[in-house]
What does this fold into?
Amino acid sequence: MKRQDLFELAGRNMRNARLRNALTILGIAVGVASLVATCSLGIGLQNFANRQLMRSGMFQTVFVTSRQDVRNMDENAETKPDEQPQITGETRARIAALPGVEEVAPEVRATAEVVYNGQPQFTLLAGLPQSARDEDSVEKVQGRFFSGPNADEVLLQRDFAKKLESDPANVIGKSVTIRYAERQSGEAEGSFSIERHEKAFVIVGLLDEQPFGGMRMISRARVFLPTATAEQMNLMQPADTQQLVRSTPGQKTYSMLTVRMKSAAYAEQVEDAVKKMNFSAYSYLDAARSMRRFFAVLDMFLFLFGSLALVVASLAIVNTLVMAVLERRREIGIMKAVGASDRDVQRLFFAEAATMGLIGGLLGVALGWFIGRAINFGGNVYLSHTMHLPKENLWSVPVWLGLAAVVFAVAVSVLAGLYPAARAARLDPVQSLRYE
Amino acid sequence: MSEQMIATAIEARRASRHYAMGENQVRAVDDVSFTIPAGEFAALLGPSGSGKSTLLNLLAGLDRLTSGGLSVDGHELGAMDSEALARYRRHTVGMIFQSFNLVPAMTLADNVELPLRFAEAPRAGRSERVMELLHSVGLEKRAQHKPSELSGGEQQRAAIARALVNRPRVLLADEPTGNLDTRNGQEVMTLLSELNANTGVTILMVTHDPALASRYARQQLHMADGRLIPNVEGAR
Ligand SMILES: Nc1ncnc2c1ncn2[C@@H]1O[C@H](COP(=O)(O)OP(=O)(O)OP(=O)(O)O)[C@@H](O)[C@H]1O
Ligand SMILES: [Mg+2]
It folds into this structure.
């Protein structure tokens, strides 16, 4: 039988038992809607989490240390100490040349005295690389970010600014003097001397959150200056003594480099390249991987729960079609008598099942979309009124999900039609035509 | 020999259809042999339960032989699988029933179109073919009516139109006038004999009515208890 004839006959049969078929279709629609709603919530939550983490800049960052470093992450590395190179300026240039690398910055942290309005405050300084500009916490800066990589400008932590002015916003645009210890090469080989210096800066902005500038930012710096500026200042750093003992004299070495990529997609590649150079590399990608695993499991559970309703709906299809087979016994006999093959009869019931699945699936996706919107709306009301958080899209129905749900509904329906269709095809025409 | 084959529309060779009923065996059709030449109008007579419908269903390709052979228009029914039998039902035989067996939810036109759908006839020209058939049985004005809106005679004429729509070589009729009054029965019989005369379609008609058989049929087969009774007047 031609497909068009098949669906014409199927459509006619379904119109003849309108109420029953409509209810069955509604059942499928509710099943698909629950599937779409739960899956879209899963996808939405995953997108939300991804957005949050990506904005933090965590996944765009790889940390490079020498394998000699005390913080060395693979203590059991098989390479011998003399094969473990120091991180030098040359290393820095090589890493900067890797594809996808936006910026390579050393970690600069030092204690210093900040003089504002003649009042000194002892605090912790940290270099903030240019690439931190795109970070979420830095994007929300009050005031502005550094005007250039070598600018003599600082950003202050809001809490620190509160110690300087009763209204912290007043510090913006004011100047501040930083007294710091400068490291200078010593007269003897392998030694250095320390001198006190002063430098004037303009306060250009306030930060609320801790920027993710480096691995040990947890120890809360209060004053941030451009990394390049900080490097030129030759700040005496805690790691300097450690380096003094080991480094090749006359060469500048780094204890750690923070590598910022253009996107998280490069992180793995860069990590591998750095490890090939025989340095330790670490990124939060591993954490991201376990997060992805978590969401895969979550999605699977949501999918299972969502499909449960569809499984119930498929039983309704089985019921409806078995009823139809019983009711249309004679008609099936007639069709066979005028030339229908067993396969024609089977396909006719499949076509009815598939049609119900298709209509139910389309209705269900629409319904699921509305349910998802409602959940999203409710969730946002909660976020903004109870938690005072900005609106977020917790829920997403990508086109593929809609399509997949419809295909899934049709597949489940045809599967449910398997038994009734086989029963109809097996019907003995002589028997079904015998009695009135 | 081969000319003989072509001239033979129906041939039964020791055809049997037995049903197993627990311990017993019902021999609905038992060792039946006969031939009906092409273009013949034949009647199959016999008391109730003698196996007439069973034989007709075998010939229609709706049922299968227990033993023996049947050939219709050169098709050996015993050798066919179910797909081939379905094709055979589409193209070689047409069947009409005592109870008409029109699909109640379909209009007459849809009923007549049904065999064209299974035969995968091209959609273009289908409705013309349907109207042509309905016209030939005098029902062109009733094309959009449901069977329940028609008299028994009209329903049977529509069933005849449906049976003929794929131009079968053989028409099998199981008591076509059994549910009709005399006048409607006459009308249907006239239609069948005209069809036989004008198109040369071979007709095998089951009937209880010997008068009807002798009036319209040129060949008569008599059955009793599943067997053919030989040498009755008219049997060849
Ligand atoms: N499926 C079956 N199982 C068992 N016995 C059957 C079956 N079908 C038919 N029979 C038996 O076969 C015999 C022939 O039946 P059939 O319907 O062919 O008779 P018939 O000559 O057409 O009778 P009628 O004139 O009443 O229509 C009957 O005895 C019937 O009970
Ligand atoms: Mg009978």
Remarks:
- The interface with chain B takes residues 1-2, 4-5, 8-9, 12, 16, 330-331, 333-344, 429-430, 433, 436 of chain A (CB under 8 Å).
